[in-house]
Amino acid sequence: MLTDEPSSRRYPKTERSSPPASCRTGSIGLLVLLTALIAGPALGQTQPPATGEVIIVTGRGLPEALGESVYDTTRIDRERLTESASNRLEDILRDVPGFQLFRRSDSRSANPTSQGATLRALGGNASSRALLILDGVPQTDPFGGWVSWPAYSPQRLGLVRVTRGGGTGANGAGALAGTIELFSATPAQLRGIRGAIAYGSRDSLDAEAGLGVSLGAGFVSASASYARGDGFVPVVEEQRGAVDRSSPYEQTSVSVRAVAPVSSTIEFQSSGRWFSDNRERGTAFSGISTQGLDGAVRLVRNGRWRWSALGYVQTRQFRNSFAGVNAGRTSVSRVSEQHDVPSAGYGVRAEVRPPLGKLELRFGGEWRETEGETRERFNFQNGAATRSRETGGRTRTLGAFTEAAWQSGALTLSGGARLDRWRISSGFLDERVLATGAMLNDVNFADRSGWAGTARTGVAWRAADAITLRTAAYLGWRLPTLNELYRPFRVGADATAANARLAPERLRGIEAGVEYRPTGDGRVGVTVFANRLEDAIANVTLGRGPGVFPGAGFVADGGEYRQRRNLDAIRSKGIEVDGRLDFGSWSLAGGYSFADARVDASGPALPLHGLRPAQTPKHSLSSTLGWRGSGDVRASLSARFVSSQFEDDLNAQRLPDALTFDATASLPLTRALALEARAENFTNKRVVAAINGAGVIERATPRTLWIGLRLRD
Fold first, then answer.
1. Cα–Cα 20 to 30 A to 262, which of 190, 277, 651, 688?
2. What is the pLDDT of residues 622-655, one digit of tens each?
3. Helix (H) or strand (E) segment spanning residue 505
4. Residue 489 to residue 28: CA distance in whole angstroms
């Protein structure tokens, strides 16, 4: 409901030329955190263990909880993280059954706003429906819910753990489809000097350098990564025109991390990260820029009483320009521009695990707030904007969780619950005529709040030495992002209106599985699942141009008008298979997902009833055959298949299936130096990533070859 609430609920108009106050506060907080980062190792020197024993810092949080073993989980180890063909985290995550981004393209060519992560075909829009965390800190963009993948170099990570299914309350709110946990590499994995440089197709460069050293009783690591390339032409060859050109990218990331013992049982951890991501989408006026600065501190106690306490802050600055191309693709012009999108996310979380014998109890709480706005120029005439838009707000969640697990012999039981108080506030929309300053829209949206409860429970039974049976049920939820609530957008001729009345999404799910472990490291897991996502947020088609539509303005002939709406539900059921087997110097790892997802819809969205959600394939398959010879010679061959999926909610535009192959090889030249070769999509398969309303087809990464050197201390 729209109201005429006092303007004090929005950011003061005199401050809109600079980031919101909370973003500036976040930057100050980052300075404090980075100061702590520098001071961290000194703690290890001032608090030596009283007994004189040697303390080994780990850089990790609390150990994996006993209850995690009853849920459907896939792990990606450091070897796989550091030996992929693309050296891109989002590409490595495609090994996980059911994982997908909204688009098939990666973070070198896709618009960042289409880079949200989801699982089990619960997609339908570009916001993440899976909770992504790094060392306990949520990583989705505070304003839009997408993920800035270039910020996460796989070389800095030691482990990735993906748990499918909602309700993982101890990790935070928003674990609707599941949780993707990123763990920084341990001091033992980062010790010494390391570096790599590779040259690739289309004048591409991929470089990384790092250093890890002991300092007192603690440890400090620093690393930097850099990637650039001329890029490829996104539009397929037969449809290109004079305006189409390559899509260059340039991406930089710097990370510093410190770990130090405070006592014989308490470890202090601090981290800071800065990244910059610049891309172009293949025409003039299509540049995109993201910058981010993150900081976090964490205390972890391992002993009889285990606990952790975490505090973090994130700031983002985003810019995005949109181009309009005529039907013959002979001319291009700017149609809108997000020239300034500041946002911030910050929070604290604490967890306690008391000593209770066979019963493992974990409980704690979390507070998280996001705040941001988008400042735009649009309705360009003769190359100049005629109107401006400023819109945004803030969201807040405050939650408490508890979970218990018990193991006796072959039986493991787990159950937990979380309760969150959520609030959406300070929402506003301000649209003006630039030439005169005349107000077109001046709206303060009503504040809203509510309660959301989530839970999960499961049981695992080791039926034999090598066979474990398990089953689980769970509830999950997700709050709409500020982008979904307040920002309308355009892609080509298509326009999508925002919806400040969106309700939170809620999920109910069940699963059952069996795991077979024929050897110590080998395993094969099979899981069947059924999920129902209620109030699923989707971009719903409501009309077609030419015409003027509410919240979007004029839509030209051939363009489609959509609005973000809550569907009745998305139902997804299917099966997932993943595993790894070792045969001497050979290894085989792979995963398969079948997900039959359908929309339940009524009212204006009734035409969607029974259709598949947009951008959700029914089948996906990945496999990697690896070989390690004498002298640490290595090679691997990976295959990925994704079945056809629909570009749009009406299932009118089908993206064909795609089978691609990657390969890697490493040949040591000396003890510390190795020659590496990598090949992405080496058969040069056309992978269709998008089809716009006018039928223009965009592809994902073509064949890309790399050659380089890697230094290992």
1. 190
2. 999 999 998 889 999 999 999 999 998 899 999 9
3. strand 505-516
4. 32
Four-residue CA torsion sign, 628, 701, 124, 1: positive
Residues near 192 by beta carbon (within 8 Å), at least 6 away in sequence: 211, 212, 712, 713
Query: Identity (one letter) of the amino acid at 707?
Result: I
> Whole-angstrom Cα distance, residue 61 to residue 73?
18
**Cβ of 326: how many Cβ atoms within 10 Å?**
11
Residue whose entry in the numeric block shows the structure tokens 């106690």: 301
Catalogue all structural domains in the chain, each as residue range(s) with its CATH number.
Answer: 2-712 (2.40.170.20)
Q: What is the mean pLDDT of the chain?
A: 90
Predicted pLDDT of residue 500: 95
Give the C-alpha separation, 86 to 90, whole Å.
10
The 3-class secondary structure across 568-611, one letter per residue, is CEEEEEEEEEEEEEEECCEEEEEEEEEEEEEEECCHHHHHHCCC
CB atoms within 10 A of CB 603: 9
SS3 content of the chain, % helix, strand, coil (to 5): 10, 55, 35
β-strand pairing of 178-184 with 130-134: parallel
Contact 329, 241 (CB under 8 A): yes
Structure tokens that stand for 174 in this block: 């928003």
SS3 93: helix
Cα(274)–Cα(224) distance, integer angstroms = 10
Residue whose C-alpha is closest to residue 518's, from 554, 470, 466, 469: 466
CA dist 383 and 182 (Å) reads 44
Q: Which residue, among 176, 273, 173, has the nearest Cα to 222 in the 3D structure?
A: 273
Kindly tell me the burial class for residue 538, based on how many C-beta atoms sit within 10 Å of its own C-beta (0-12, 13-18, 19 or more). Answer: buried
Q: Which of 467, 540, 143 is nearest to 315 (CA)?
A: 143
pLDDT of residue 545: 82
Return the DSSP state at 235: B
Output the pLDDT for position 54. Answer: 65
Instruction: Name the token pair of 363.
Output: 């409980």
pLDDT interval class at 2 (50, 70, 90): very low
**At 167, is the pLDDT very low, low, confident or very high (cuts 50, 70, 90)?**
confident
**Count of residues for the chain?**
713
Residue 576 CA to residue 100 CA, distance in Å, equals: 14
Cis peptide before 187 (omega within 30 of 0): no
C-alpha separations of 184 from 86, 153, 349, 615 in Å? 20, 10, 18, 31
Rg of the chain's alpha carbons, rounded to an integer? 25
- Paired sense of beta strands 619-628 and 523-534, if any: unpaired
The DSSP code sequence of 319-377 is EEEEEEE-TTS--EEEEEEEEEEEEEEEEEEEEEE---TTEEEEEEEEEEEEEEEEEEE
Report how far Cα 449 is from the mean position of its chain's Cα atoms. Answer: 26
* Separation of alpha carbons 680 and 72, rounded Å: 29
**Residues forming a β-bridge with 555:** 547
Name the token pair of 712.
Answer: 């290992």
**Residue 708 pLDDT exceeds 70:** yes
Round to whole Å and give the CA distance between 19 and 22: 8
Q: CA 274, CA 152: separation in Å to the nearest integer? A: 10
Query: Per-residue pLDDT for 280 more than 60?
Result: yes
Strand, coil or helix: what is 511?
strand
Are residues 114 and 101 in contact, defined by beta-carbon separation less than 8 angstroms? yes
CA 190/CA 444 separation, integer angstroms? 50
Residue 272 CA to residue 257 CA, distance in Å, equals: 6
In the numeric block, the tokens 């604490």 are attached to: 350
Q: What is the DSSP string of 389-446?
A: EEEEEEEEEEEEEEEEEEEETTEEEEEEEEEEEEEEEEEEEEEEETTT--EEEEEEEP
Please name the residue that has the structure tokens 């050293």: 213
Assigned token pair, 605: 């969205």
